[in-house]
Design a protein that fits this description.
CATH architecture of the largest domain in chain B: Orthogonal Bundle
Oligomer: heterotrimer
Helix content of chain C: over 70%
CATH class of the largest domain in chain B: Mainly Alpha
Structural class of chain C: mainly alpha
Distance between the termini of chain B: 38 Å
Number of domains of chain B: 2
Strand content of chain C: under 5%
Number of strands of chain B: 2
Shape of chain C: flat
Order of helices and strands of chain B: HHHEEHHHHHHHHH
Shape of chain B: elongated
Number of helices of chain B: 12
Strand content of chain B: under 5%
CATH superfamily of one domain in chain C: MetI-like
Largest sheet of chain B: 2 strands, antiparallel
CATH class of one domain in chain C: Mainly Alpha
Chains: A alpha+beta, B mainly alpha, C mainly alpha
Largest interface: A-C, 66 and 67 residues
Number of helices of chain C: 15
C-alpha cells in the first residue's frame, strides 16, 4: 500500500479539478431541448388509482388524464359547463311514468382502450379492445361492490337497484363458494347487473334513477364512471409479480401511465389510440382546443391562453413527468430554477414572489405568470355535537359557548400569519362562485368581538371562562392527527385566542391512527377540518351538516354530528331543486340555522396561487379534477435556454476554501521540513 | 402536575448535596474535580447555568398575579415556573415575526407591543424566542439527564450482577443485551415510540430501553476484570460478603467509567432527540422541535434566521460543554489517555 | 475452528429469535392489530372488507393460543400470530405493507439500490477523509495543526446532524447551486449529481467523531516499539506513518468499521428523507408517517439481521487474522 498523504492530497486536487466542471443542478438526464415534456412533482404517491376508489387530488391528477369520462367540463368557460366526452351528448333527464328518471347516453363509436398486456386474456398478441357500453356498466357495478369499497357509493345510490345489488352480491359471496370463486365481472353478470343500468347494444347506456338527481351528471364528469375493462381488473390482481389494478390503470384517455414508481417518478405518455386522434372524432368537444369565440379576452390579455391554438387537435404534450418531491422548499426552488413548469407558491417564499398582491418585479422579470383561484372549498373548526359540554346535550349553554368561541377566532390574522393572506374569510360553508353564495352576507359571529364573547360566556354559565363546578377554567380538548412541529403552531393560534376568554383548550395531538380511533368512538370535542368540493353545487357543502351523513350514526362526513330537524327538512327541499330564487331562499335559511347553532366556526375558503413559467402555454387553473394536460403545451427551446441562464453554479467559495486549507498547513510543513534538515 | 417536578427538584438538589459531600471526602474524586475545574472552568460554569435554568423552570406553582397587559386569562390558573414568572410570556408577545431587538414587525412594519425588548426576536406566533430557547433547556436536561439517571442504576445492577456472579444470570443478561444491541438503535427507538405513543414518559422510556445496553455491557465487562483482581480475591478469602465486595470494591472502581459514559450518553440523547423531532415523534418544547419548525424559515425572503440560530446555538453550547468536560474527565481519570471501546 | 464457527452461528440464530420476540411484543402485543386494520381500511368500510384485510395481512389469528383448536392439537399453538410471525420472518415472507398493500420484500429490494449508492460512497469517502486527516494530525502532533483540528473536531461533534443537513442544503443547494437541491435518478450518469450533496454533508457531519477516533488509534500505534525501531533504522517520518503506523492501525479501524456495515443497508435515514432519495431510510420514514407497522417491523428485523451477520463476520475474521485471539 503506497499511499502517501501528499499522493492523497494531489489525488484530491485532481478529483476536485475533474468534478468542478461536472457541477450542475440539472435533475434531468438530457436537456430535452426539442421534446415536449411537461415536468411536475408529487409529494406522496396516491394510495390507489382504481377509478372507483381514487378520491384525492393527487390521484385525480393521474386518473383524470388516463381515464376518459362520459362528460367533461369546458376548459375555459366559467362558471363550469358540462360538455360531452365519451358520450355524444349531455343527456336530458327524462321523467318516466312511474316517477323515476332516465338518463340516456349515446356512446362514441370505435373508442378503444390503451394498449396493455391485460388484453392477452382474450388471446395471444391482443393488446387492445373496443369499448362497449358493457364496460361502463361493469364499472358502475364495481362502485356497488363491497369488496371494491368505493367511497362514493352513496352518491350513486339513487340509481335504481344499486343498493339491492350491493346486498345481493355480498350475500351470494358469503353463501355460495362457487359463486365467490368467479371473476368479478362474471359475478355481476350472474346477478344480472345493476337493474338501473341498461346496456342497449354496444353504444347506448341508460341510467335509471329512483328520483330526480340533477347533481348526478357532475359525477359522470369524474373518473368514477369511466369505462373499465374487466380484463385489467382480472389480470392485475397483485399475484405472481403482476401489479395490482390500483397501481396499473388501463383506460381510454389521452395519456397512458407508463412508469409508476411510487418512490420516485410517474410518467404519462401520449396514447396513440385515444379517440381524439381518430379522424371521425376529431371535432368532438373533448378532442379539440376550444374555438376562438370561447376564449375570453381576459384569458388572452393575461397571456394564459394562446389564441393560435383555437380549434387545434389535442393533445400537444408528448410526455408528462412527475418527480417525487417530499418537501415543499426543494420543490419550489426547482420551480424557480426552471426545472418544474408550474407549481404552487409556498408560504415561506411568498414575500419573495408576491408584492402588493401581484408578481414581484424579480419574478416578472423571469417571465413568470401568477394565477390566483379561490378553490371551491372551506376550512373550519368543528364541534362534536354529541359531546356533553360543547354539544347539543348542554342545550342553550353550549350554543352560547360555541358562539363565544366563534367570536374570538380572528381568521384574518390567521390567514395573514400562516397563509400570507391567501384565502377568503368564510361566513358560511359556501365558497365564492357557488350558486347561493352571497358576497354581502356577514355572519354576526364571525367577526371578532371579545366583549360580546365574554358576556355570552357568562350567560352560558362560564363567567370569565370559569367552570363553576370545578372552579377552574373550562377545560376542552382540540383533537388532531397532526403531530408535526409546524402543524402544532397552527393549533396554538386558536388555543391562544380561546385563552383570552379564559377557556383552557388542550391540544391533543395523537398520531393519525389514534385520531381516527377517537373520531370513530366519538371521543373528541373540537377539530379542524377542510372540505374541497367534488362538483360546483351548494348541496355538496351543505350535506356536510345533515343528519343523514352524521358520523356517529352513519359514519358519514358530518364529523360535527350536527342533527337538526329543521335543517334536514330544508336541506331535503334544496337538495335536488333546480337553481331558482326559492333555492336561494332555502339556502339563506339553512345558513341562518348554522349562524346561530354554530356547529362549525367557518374559517376560510382557500386561495391557490400558482406560478407558471413563460414557456408554459394554455394553462388555465381548474378547481376541479379534470384532464388538463391535453390542453397544455410548452416551448421547449425557450425553456432550455432559460434553464441554462438561471443555473450557473457559484464556484469561488470552493476555491477560497481550498486556498485556505493549503495556506493553513503550509507553515507546519515548513517547520517540519526545517526540523528534518 | 407541578408537585412531581417540584419534588423531583428537591430530590435532585438533595442528591447533588449528598454527592458533593461524598466527593469532598474522597481524595481521588475531589482532586479529579479540582483538576477538572482548573481545565474546564468556562464549560463547567455554562453547564451549571443550564442546570440552574432547568431547575428554576421545574419549580412551579399555581397562583400569584399574572403581570402586564394580559391577553391570557387561563395563565393564572396554570402552574407557572419561576422562568415563566420572570419572563411572563402571556404578555410578552407580538402578532408575528420580529427580528432581534427590532422596533417593528418583520414583514409589515407594524408597531410592536414591546419594541426592542425581544433579545432574540419573536417567532411566527409572536412568542419570544429567548423564552422558548430557555424552556428547551429543561426538556434537554430531562431527556439527557433524567433518562440516564434512571437507566444507570438499572444497567449497573444487571451489569454488575452478570459480571460478578456469572453463570445463569450472566447468560440471561448477556442474551437480553445482545438482542437489544443487535437492533440498530435509531430503528429500535422509532419502533418503540411508534408503539408506545408520543409523550415525555414514553420517549424517555424508549431512550432508556435503547440506552441501558451500553452501560450494562461496560459495567459487566469491567466487573469481570475486577472480579479477578487481587484485592477482590483477598476480600473474598477474608470472608467479606458479596454485597460488601460489590459495594466496597467493585462499584467505586466503576465510577470513572460511569461518569464518562454518562456524559457521552447525555450528548447522544440530546442530539438524538432532534432526529426524533424531525420525524414528528419528539418532545414538545424541545430544541429539536424549534429547529424543525424553523428549518423552512431559511427560505423566507428576507430570511428569518433567529429561530434556527437560537435553538441550534443553545443545543450546540450545551453539547459542546458536556463533550469538553467529558474529554477532560477522561484524561484526568484515565492516565493512559486511552479511549474505551464504546 | 469449525466448532467455534458453528457455535457462533448458533448463537447468532438465537439472537435473531430474541429480536423476533422483541418485535412480537412490540408490534402484536402492545400495538393492537385491530387498530392497525381499522385505520388501514377506513372507517366506512364494511365488516367484510375489514375481515378480509386482516386476513390478507395476517392479523386474523389469536395472539398465542388459538382456542378454536382442541387442547391436544398442535394447531392450538401453531395457528396463531406468534407462530406465524416467526415462520414468516424466518422464511423472509414479509407480506404486504399495512399502508398501501404493496409487497414489502419488493420495496426493500427496490430501496436497496438507492440506499447503497448513497451509503457506499459516503462510507468509503468518509473513511478516506477521516483516515487522511487523522494521519495528518498524528503526523503534526502537538503542533498548531493538531490542536486546531482537534478543536474543530470537538466543535463539529457538538452540532446536531439536522443542522448540518439544513445548513448544507441551504448553502450549497440553494445559494451556490452546485448540485440539485434534492431528488434522485437511477441513471448513474445523472445520479452522481443528486448524491454529491448528501455524501458531502454526510462526510462533514461524521468528520469530527471519526478523526478523533482514528487519531487516538494512530497515536497509540506511534508509541509502540516497532515505530521506535523503524525510526532508529533511519526511516523517514512520512514513511513511518504510511508504511508502519497506517498499516497496523488499519486493523482496529477496520473492525470498528465492519460494525457500521449494516447501516449501509438501512441507509442514512435523515439524509435520504431530506434529499428525497427513495432508499430504505426513506421507506422507514414513510412507514413512520403512514403508521405502516408491517414495514417498520420488517425494517427493524432486516437491520438487526444484518447487524448480527456483520458481528459474526467480524468475530470470525478477527480470529482468522489474529492468532492471539482465543477461541472461546
Amino acid at each position: 500500500m503506497k499511499l502517501s498523504p501528499i499522493g492523497f492530497a494531489s489525488f484530491c486536487c485532481l478529483a476536485v479539478a475533474l468534478l468542478v466542471p461536472a457541477c450542475t443542478n440539472n435533475p434531468y438526464p438530457n436537456e430535452g431541448g426539442e421534446t415536449r415534456v411537461f415536468y411536475s412533482s408529487f409529494a406522496e404517491a396516491p394510495r390507489t388509482l382504481d377509478p372507483a376508489v381514487a378520491y384525492t387530488t393527487s390521484a385525480h391528477v393521474i386518473t383524470a388524464n388516463v381515464f376518459d369520462t362520459l362528460l367533461e367540463y369546458h376548459y375555459l368557460k366559467r362558471p363550469y359547463e358540462l360538455i360531452p366526452a365519451l358520450a355524444e351528448n349531455v343527456p336530458e333527464p327524462r321523467e318516466m311514468a312511474d316517477g323515476r328518471v332516465s338518463l340516456l347516453f349515446r356512446l362514441r363509436d370505435g373508442v378503444s382502450f390503451q394498449r396493455d398486456r391485460a388484453f392477452e386474456l382474450n388471446g395471444e398478441g391482443i393488446d387492445t379492445r373496443i369499448v362497449t357500453a358493457q364496460d361502463f356498466a361493469f364499472q358502475i357495478a364495481r362502485l356497488a361492490d363491497p369488496a371494491v369499497n368505493s367511497p362514493v357509493f352513496e352518491n350513486f345510490a339513487s340509481i335504481t337497484g344499486l343498493r339491492a345489488f350491493r346486498t345481493l352480491l355480498s350475500e351470494r359471496r358469503s353463501g355460495d363458494t362457487d359463486f365467490a370463486a368467479l371473476r368479478a365481472d362474471q359475478q355481476y353478470m350472474a346477478l344480472g347487473g345493476v337493474p338501473g343500468v341498461l346496456v342497449n347494444g354496444d353504444n347506448e347506456l341508460e341510467i335509471i334513477l329512483d328520483q330526480p338527481n340533477p347533481q348526478i351528471l357532475y359525477w359522470f364528469a369524474m373518473p368514477f364512471t369511466t369505462p373499465v375493462p374487466w380484463e385489467a381488473v382480472a389480470y392485475y390482481d397483485g399475484n405472481e409479480g403482476r401489479d395490482r389494478f390500483a397501481d396499473h390503470p388501463v383506460g381510454t384517455g389521452p395519456y397512458a401511465l407508463t412508469v409508476y414508481d411510487k418512490q420516485f417518478r410517474f410518467v404519462l405518455e401520449r396514447n396513440a389510440l385515444w379517440y381524439g386522434a381518430q379522424s371521425e372524432h376529431r371535432d368532438a368537444p373533448g378532442a379539440a382546443f376550444p374555438a376562438l369565440s370561447d376564449i375570453s379576452d381576459e384569458d388572452i390579455a393575461s397571456g394564459r391562453i394562446e389564441p393560435a391554438y383555437a380549434g387545434r387537435a389535442l393533445p400537444f404534450l408528448e410526455r408528462i413527468e412527475f418527480r417525487r418531491e417530499r418537501e415543499s422548499i426543494p420543490r419550489f426552488n426547482k420551480l424557480l430554477q426552471g426545472y418544474y413548469d408550474d407549481g404552487g407558491v409556498i408560504k415561506e417564499s411568498f414575500d419573495a414572489v408576491v408584492e402588493n398582491d401581484d408578481l414581484s418585479p424579480e419574478m416578472a422579470e423571469l417571465g413568470m405568470r401568477l394565477d390566483k383561484v379561490v378553490e371551491p372549498g372551506v376550512y373550519y373548526i368543528g364541534f362534536n355535537m354529541d359531546d356533553d359540554v360543547v354539544g347539543r346535550a348542554a342545550g342553550d349553554r353550549s350554543r352560547k359557548l360555541r358562539q363565544a368561541m366563534s367570536l374570538v377566532v380572528d381568521v384574518g390574522q390567521y390567514l395573514e400569519i400562516f397563509l400570507n393572506g391567501r384565502g377568503v374569510p368564510a361566513h358560511s360553508p359556501l365558497p365564492p362562485g357557488l350558486f347561493g353564495y352571497d358576497p354581502d352576507y356577514r355572519n354576526p359571529y364571525r367577526s371578532v368581538d371579545v366583549d360580546r364573547a365574554r358576556s355570552l360566556l357568562a350567560e352560558a354559565g362560564y363567567p370569565g371562562g370559569i367552570d363553576l363546578e370545578t372552579n377552574a377554567p373550562l377545560k376542552l380538548t382540540f383533537d388532531t392527527g397532526d403531530t408535526s412541529a409546524q402543524g402544532r403552531l397552527r393549533y396554538q393560534f386558536f388555543v391562544s385566542a380561546w385563552r383570552t376568554l379564559g377557556i383552557d383548550v388542550e391540544i391533543a395531538a395523537t398520531n393519525y391512527n389514534k385520531f381516527q380511533e377517537k373520531v370513530r368512538s366519538g371521543a373528541y370535542q373540537i377539530f379542524f377540518w377542510g372540505w374541497i368540493a367534488d362538483y360546483p353545487d351548494p348541496e355538496n357543502f351543505l350535506f356536510l351538516l345533515e343528519s343523514a351523513s352524521a358520523r356517529s350514526a352513519t359514519e358519514g362526513p358530518n364529523t360535527a354530528n350536527f342533527m337538526d330537524a329543521r335543517y334536514d327538512e330544508l336541506f331535503a327541499a334544496m337538495e335536488n331543486r333546480a337553481n331558482d330564487t326559492r333555492r336561494i331562499e332555502i339556502i339563506r335559511e339553512l345558513t341562518g340555522i348554522l349562524e346561530t347553532e354554530r356547529p362549525w366556526i367557518e374559517l376560510f375558503h382557500p386561495e391557490a396561487y400558482t406560478l407558471r413559467h413563460s414557456w408554459l402555454l394554455n394553462a388555465k387553473p381548474m378547481g376541479l379534477s379534470y384532464p388538463v394536460f391535453k390542453y397544455r403545451d410548452i416551448d421547449p427551446d425557450l425553456r432550455a435556454e432559460r434553464r441554462l441562464a438561471w443555473n450557473k453554479p457559484l464556484m469561488w467559495p470552493l476555491y477560497a476554501f481550498i486556498l485556505f486549507i493549503v495556506a493553513a498547513t503550509l507553515p507546519a510543513i515548513r517547520t517540519l521540513y526545517r526540523e528534518r534538515t | 402536575m407541578p408537585w412531581i417536578s417540584n419534588i423531583a427538584v428537591l430530590v435532585l438538589v438533595a442528591l447533588g448535596f449528598l454527592g458533593w459531600r461524598t466527593i469532598r471526602r474522597n481524595r481521588l474524586w475531589s482532586e479529579a474535580l479540582r483538576a477538572l475545574w482548573r481545565r474546564r472552568r468556562i464549560s463547567l460554569v455554562i453547564i451549571a447555568v443550564y442546570v440552574v435554568i432547568a431547575l428554576l423552570d421545574s419549580i412551579a406553582w399555581v397562583g400569584g398575579t399574572v403581570s402586564g397587559d394580559v391577553s391570557d386569562a387561563v395563565a393564572a390558573f396554570k402552574p407557572r415556573s419561576i422562568i415563566d414568572r420572570i419572563i411572563a410570556p402571556e404578555a410578552f408577545k407580538e402578532l408575528s415575526y420580529s427580528a432581534p431587538f427590532a422596533e417593528a414587525g418583520f414583514y409589515d412594519d407594524a408597531p410592536l407591543n414591546h419594541p426592542g425588548a425581544h433579545v432574540l426576536g419573536t417567532d411566527i406566533l409572536g412568542q419570544d424566542v429567548l423564552y422558548r430557547a430557555l424552556k428547551g433547556v429543561r426538556v434537554a436536561l430531562l431527556i439527557g439527564g433524567l433518562t440516564s439517571l434512571i437507566v444507570i442504576p438499572i444497567a449497573l445492577a444487571f451489569g454488575v450482577a452478570a459480571g460478578y456472579f456469572g453463570g445463569r444470570i450472566d447468560d440471561v443478561v448477556f442474551f437480553v443485551m445482545s438482542t437489544l444491541a443487535s437492533v440498530p438503535s435509531l430503528l429500535l427507538l422509532i419502533a418503540l415510540i411508534m408503539v408506545l405513543g408520543i409523550g415525555t414518559v414514553q420517549v424517555c422510556v424508549a431512550l432508556g430501553v435503547t440506552g441501558w445496553v451500553g452501560f450494562c455491557r461496560l459495567s459487566r465487562g469491567e466487573t469481570l476484570k475486577l472480579r479477578e483482581a487481587d484485592y477482590v480475591q483477598a476480600a473474598r478469602a477474608l470472608g467479606v460478603s458479596h454485597a460488601g465486595i460489590i459495594l466496597r470494591h467493585i462499584l467505586p472502581n466503576l465510577a470513572h467509567l460511569i461518569v464518562i459514559t454518562f456524559a457521552l450518553q447525555f450528548t447522544g440523547l440530546v442530539l438524538a432527540e432532534t432526529i426524533l423531532s424531525y420525524l414528528g415523534i419528539g418532545l414538545d418544547g424541545s430544541w429539536g422541535q424549534m429547529i424543525d419548525q424553523a428549518r423552512d424559515e431559511l427560505s423566507r425572503d428576507p430570511i428569518v434566521w433567529w429561530n434556527l440560530a437560537a435553538a441550534s446555538c443553545a443545543l450546540f453550547t450545551l453539547v459542546l460543554c458536556v463533550n469538553l468536560c467529558a474529554d477532560a474527565m477522561r484524561d484526568i481519570l484515565d492516565p493512559r489517555t486511552r479511549r474505551e471501546e464504546q | 475452528m469449525f466448532a467455534y464457527l458453528v457455535r457462533r452461528i448458533a448463537y447468532g440464530f438465537v439472537t435473531v429469535l430474541g429480536v423476533l420476540m422483541l418485535l412480537f411484543v412490540l408490534f402484536f402485543a402492545i400495538a393492537d392489530p385491530d387498530d392497525i386494520a381499522r385505520k388501514a381500511v377506513g372507517e366506512r368500510a364494511s365488516a367484510e372488507v375489514y375481515e378480509q384485510w386482516k386476513k390478507n395481512h395476517g392479523y386474523d389469528k389469536p395472539l398465542i393460543v388459538n382456542t378454536d383448536h382442541g387442547a391436544a392439537e398442535f394447531a392450538r399453538y401453531t395457528d396463531t400470530l406468534f407462530f406465524d410471525h416467526y415462520r414468516r420472518m424466518l422464511t423472509f415472507d414479509f407480506g404486504r405493507s399495512d399502508a398501501d398493500d404493496s409487497p414489502i420484500a419488493g420495496r426493500i429490494l427496490a430501496g436497496a439500490v438507492p440506499s447503497l449508492s448513497l451509503t457506499v460512497p459516503l462510507f468509503v469517502i468518509g473513511l478516506g477523509v477521516g483516515v487522511f486527516f487523522a494521519l495528518l494530525v498524528a503526523f503534526f502532533r502537538d503542533t498548531y495543526v493538531d490542536r486546531s483540528v482537534l478543536v474543530l473536531c470537538m466543535l463539529a461533534m457538538s452540532i446536531a446532524s439536522l443542522i448540518y443537513i439544513i445548513g448544507g442544503q441551504y448553502l450549497i443547494g440553494m445559494l451556490l447551486r452546485w448540485f440539485p437541491i434534492s431528488g434522485f435518478d437511477p441513471d448513474p450518469t445523472v445520479a452522481y449529481r443528486f448524491l454529491a450533496l448528501p455524501v458531502l454533508i454526510g462526510v462533514v457531519s461524521g468528520f469530527g467523531a471519526d478523526v478523533r477516533l482514528y487519531r487516538t488509534v494512530f497515536l497509540e500505534e506511534t508509541n509502540r516499539d516497532y515505530v521506535r525501531t523503524a525510526r532508529a533504522k533511519g526511516c523517514g517520518d512520512i514513511r513511518v506513518m504510511t508504511a508502519h503506523v497506517l498499516r497496523n492501525a488499519l486493523i482496529p479501524i477496520l473492525t470498528n468499521v465492519v460494525l457500521a456495515i449494516p447501516f449501509l443497508f438501512t441507509g442514512a435515514l435523515l439524509l435520504e428523507s431530506f434529499f428525497g432519495i427513495p432508499g430504505l431510510g426513506s421507506l422507514t420514514v414513510e412507514a413512520i408517517h403512514g403508521n405502516d407497522f408491517s414495514t417498520l417491523r420488517t425494517m427493524v428485523y432486516i437491520g438487526a439481521l444484518l447487524f448480527i451477520l456483520g458481528q459474526i463476520l467480524t468475530d470470525v475474521s478477527y480470529t482468522l487474522a489474529d492468532p492471539r485471539v482465543r477461541l472461546r
